[in-house]
Amino acid sequence: MSDDDNSPISVREAKQLFAELKSAPALVLAVSGGPDSIALMWLAARWRRSLARGPLLTVVTVDHGLRAEAAREAREVKRLATELGLPHRTLRWRGAKPKTGLPAAAREARYRLLVQAARSAGASHVLTAHTRDDQAETLLMRLVRGSGLAGLSAMARLTPRDGIVLARPLLDVPKAQLIATLKRAKIGFADDPTNRDTAFTRPRLRALLPQLAAEGGDARSLARLAGRLARANAAVEVLTDGAERFLRLRDRDDAPHGPGMRSFEAGAFATLPEEVRLRLLLRAINALGHEGPAELGKVETLMAVLDQAILDQDMAASPRAAANGRPVLKQTLAGALISLAGGRIQIAPAPARRRRDR
Ligand SMILES: Nc1ncnc2c1ncn2[C@@H]1O[C@H](COP(=O)(O)OP(=O)(O)OP(=O)(O)O)[C@@H](O)[C@H]1O
User: Is ATP-binding one of the keywords (predicted)?
Assistant: First the structure.
């Protein structure tokens, strides 16, 4: 992207931004009516017009039913989409609205509806208008929560979800460039007041950004940090794949395996670096547990207990006793049962919890 953060995006720049999407059959553009996604729609329409053949574009707006103005904003998006020659759909979130965690629930519902819309439009990708500024905010949010390397990698340009790919073609573009693009094109956009509502964490952190920028921590450097961490994270994932293969190769043919469980030789597992051990456990628990993804902190606690149990087992006066198959550790986490028995770590789905009688 241009070094001048306030310049409108040129035809050539837009062509590069969308290049990898050129051969997709169809694309869904997720457009809320805010400046970023209006710019996405305008840029994508201009790009598509410049191609002799290319993907069909469908614009989708989700009305979460949370703000009175949302329906009017959706109509405004439809008007502009029609002007640009693009079909538009408004989808409503009709589910019950939770009292706490509303932004997360709204986001989840939004992605579910967008993925459904992609499927019915025959689209391979849903495009959102996340910018470099959003990337910086995401990194900051995860930083204050103490996330691990994977979380600090923030958003990826492409993320698979339920057979559709979520694409963020504007992830390296500063928001100011999108505003400049709209101004040049004389296109209006809605302002979502919840973006400034300090009842939510993200707007509160967003308000800190100018101070950080004054210290040199601007969106560019925060997004660059996210990119570097993503690179490191990808490398550790490859190492974890290798570790998984290494553990499998060490197993004898009679080692217990199966689609419904994973098991590792504890001694070999213990020689691996801590971060890799952690990821192996996390992968197995997330694959076999039935209560959603495990929290990193909880897996860290489990691993400390497991490490100690492996050590104790090694030091046991009678290794024969340790090898008799009786579990020396048995714990559940995120719907998975993790046990250490006979020198092996085993991860399997936890038995369904018994319902307590009143
Ligand atoms: N109501 C909506 N309808 C359609 N698309 C939307 C809507 N809200 C957001 N989007 C899409 O998602 C992008 C990011 O929006 P926003 O930053 O508000 O999301 P968020 O709540 O922070 O969630 P996340 O960043 O995790 O997607 C927008 O640029 C737009 O492409």
Answer: yes
244 within a domain of the structure (yes/no): no
Binding positions for ATP: 32-37
Burial class (CB in 10 A: 0-12, 13-18, 19+), 231: exposed
Interface ipTM: 0.94
Is the shortest distance between the CB of 58 and ligand 1 below 6 Å? no
Residues 216 and 255 reside in one and the same domain: no
Q: Is residue 308 part of a domain?
A: yes
Nearest-CA neighbor of 182 among 82, 325, 38, 31?
Answer: 38
Do 206 and 256 belong to one domain?
no
Alpha-carbon 325 to chain mean position: 40
With a 6 Å cutoff on the Cβ, whether 167 touches ligand 1 is no
Any domain includes 292: yes
Cβ-based neighbour number of residue 233 at 10 Å: 17
Ligand 1 center from residue 254 Cα (angstroms):
50
- Structure token digits, residue 58: 């469908």
- Cα separation, 11 vs 299, whole angstroms: 48
Give counts: helices (H), strands (E), the chain. 13, 10
Model confidence pLDDT, tens digit, residues 132-170: 999 999 999 999 999 999 999 999 999 999 999 999 999
Q: How many folded domains does the chain comprise? A: 2
